[in-house]
Specification:
mainly beta; 1 helix; 5 strands
């Protein structure tokens, strides 16, 4: 049987890698999350975006995001 790999809970400061970009979590509230979308790790983002936590979790799952150390 295959085991599901459990995704770590979202936390402030995490950087997630998707195919061609990185997502850095800036702030985490009860229902909303602020994040920056970066083309390269360490790049300065132009603006911080906000969405629901569930929406970002679904996006990360759909795009097979990997947590970067």
């Amino acid at each position: 049987m295959k085991q599901k790999t459990q995704r770590p809970p979202l936390a402030k400061g995490q950087v997630w890698k998707i195919d061609n970009a990185y997502i850095q979590i800036v702030e985490l509230g009860k229902t909303l999350i602020q994040y920056k979308m970066l083309r390269q790790q360490g790049q300065k983002a132009v603006k911080t975006q906000m969405t629901g936590i569930g929406t970002l979790e679904a996006y990360l799952k759909t795009n097979a995001a990997q947590l970067v150390d």
